[in-house]
Amino acid sequence: TITILDSNQNVVCTLDTLLLCPVINPPNCCGDCDFGPELVYNGDFSAPNCNIGYASDLMYANCIQPGLLLNCGGYTEVADASAWQSNWQGIEHTANGGRALLVEGSCPGMPAKRAWLQYNIFQANATYCFSAWVKNVQNTTVSEPDLELRINGLNGTVIASVTDLAYADGWVQICGNFTPTQTGTIELDIVVQSKSLTGNVFMVDDISCRMISNCDNCCDNVHIEIVPDLLQLPQNGCTGRVDIWWDEDPNCDLSHLNVSGTWTMIGYDPITKKHSYYYQIPFGTSLPFTVFILDSNLNVVCNLDSLIDCIGPTRTSGCCGDCEYGPELVINGDFSAPACTTAYSSDCNYVNCDMSVLYLGSAGYTETTDANLWNSNWHGTDHSGNGSRALLIDGPWGSPSPLRVWSQSPTLEANATYCFSAWVKNVINSTQNEPEIDLRINGLNGTIVGTVGKVAFASGWVQICGSFTTSQAGPVELDVVVLSQGGANNDFMVDDISCKKVSNCITMNKMESNVEQLPELAIQLVPNPANYRVKADIQLLSLTPFQLEVVNAMGVVVLGYENAAPRLARTSVDLDLTGLSSGIYFMRLRQGGAMVVKSLMVER
Question: Which residues fall within 8 angstroms of residue 379, CB to CB, at 6 or more apart?
Answer without folding.
Answer: 371, 372, 427, 428, 429, 457
